[in-house]
Write a structure and sequence with these properties.
By secondary structure, the protein is of the alpha/beta class. It is built from eight helices and 16 strands.
Length: 277
C-alpha cells in the first residue's frame, strides 16, 4: 500500500514483536539490504492477514521471521501507529521461556539480543526509531490486577448463593477472556493501546473448589480470610515492582489495599468491561 510517496506493507495493516528478555535485552532484526529500509535494525514483523488480530499477526510474524517458539513470549502491551489508511501495531512481550532466535526467512541478516541502553546506538528502521522512545519508557511498567472474586460475584443478585463454585467459575471465564484480549490502557490509567496485566483471581470459602480454568488468570485460594489473601497478594505483587490494581467495592478492604500500595477499582468497573456471559 502506498500514499503520498510512502510505502506501507500489508493491506490489513502490519504488526511486529518487541521481545524483552530480563537478562539479554530486546531482540532486534538486522534487515537485508534489498528490503524496505534495508541495512537498518528493527523488530520481527510484517503484514497482517485478513481477519487476523494485531496480536496474532505479531506473534505469527515473530515465529516466521525469528523462529520464536510457541509459548516463549507473554504479551505485555501494544502500541499502535495509526495513519488512518494503515496501522502498525508493536506488541511488547516478555520472554517467559528462554530461546535462541533463528533466521528463518531471507529478510534478516542477523538477529541479536541488544541491551536496552544500546538500542539507540544502532542504525534503526525509521518507524522503529520514532517509536523507541515511547516504548522504552514503558519497559519498566508491569501492571497487575487482583480481583476480589467474592465481592464482584456478590454485586450481582443473580442467584450466585445457590452455586458459589459455579458463579466463581463463570466470572473467572469472563475475566480470562477479557485479560486475553487485552485491557484498554485508559482503563488502567496507562499510555499505549492495550495491556495484558497479570491477573490474580482470589476466591474464598466454598468457591475455593472451583477449577483452575485455562491458566490465563491465576486462581488464588484464600486459606482463611479472603481479605487477608487479597492484601497479601497485592503486597507480594507490589514488592516485585508491579503496578497493582485491586478490584473490590468493600470499603475496609479498599483502605487496606491502598495502604499496601495498590490503586483501586470497583466491582462495577470490572463488570462494565467484561464480555457478556
Amino acid at each position: 500500500m502506498a500514499d503520498s510517496g510512502e510505502r506501507y506493507w500489508g493491506r490489513f495493516g502490519a504488526a511486529g514483536v518487541l521481545a524483552v528478555d530480563a537478562e539479554r535485552g530486546v531482540l532486534l532484526q538486522h534487515r537485508v539490504g534489498w528490503s524496505h529500509f534495508g541495512g537498518t535494525w528493527g523488530i520481527p514483523g510484517g503484514a497482517r492477514h485478513q481477519d487476523e488480530s494485531a496480536l496474532d499477526g505479531a506473534l505469527r510474524e515473530a515465529r516466521e521471521e525469528a523462529g520464536i517458539p510457541y509459548g516463549a513470549l507473554r504479551p505485555r502491551f501494544s502500541n499502535v501507529l495509526d495513519l488512518s489508511i494503515w496501522t502498525y501495531t508493536t506488541v511488547v512481550a516478555d520472554v517467559v521461556e528462554p530461546f535462541d532466535p533463528v533466521i528463518s526467512d531471507p529478510e534478516s541478516v542477523a538477529l541479536e539480543w541488544v541491551p536496552v541502553a544500546e538500542v539507540a546506538q544502532r542504525e534503526l528502521h525509521p518507524g522503529f526509531a520514532d517509536s523507541w522512545g515511547r516504548l522504552s519508557a514503558l519497559l519498566d511498567v508491569r501492571p497487575a490486577i487482583v480481583v476480589d472474586a467474592a465481592n464482584v460475584v456478590g454485586s450481582v443478585p443473580d442467584g450466585w448463593w445457590k452455586d458459589r463454585v459455579g458463579a466463581a467459575e463463570r466470572l473467572h471465564a469472563r475475566v480470562s477472556a477479557w485479560a486475553a484480549d487485552g485491557v484498554a490502557a485508559s482503563a488502567l490509567g496507562l499510555p499505549a493501546e492495550r495491556w495484558h496485566p497479570v491477573v490474580s483471581f482470589v476466591v474464598e470459602g466454598e468457591a475455593r473448589a472451583m477449577a483452575d480454568g485455562d491458566g490465563v488468570v491465576a486462581v488464588v485460594r484464600a486459606p482463611g480470610s479472603g481479605d487477608d489473601a487479597i492484601v497479601a497478594e497485592a503486597t507480594r505483587l507490589v514488592e516485585t515492582g508491579m503496578a497493582v490494581t485491586v478490584v473490590t467495592s468493600d470499603r475496609g478492604l479498599r483502605e487496606r489495599a491502598e495502604a499496601a500500595g495498590a490503586r483501586l477499582e470497583s466491582a462495577g468497573w470490572l463488570l462494565g468491561q467484561l464480555p457478556e456471559p
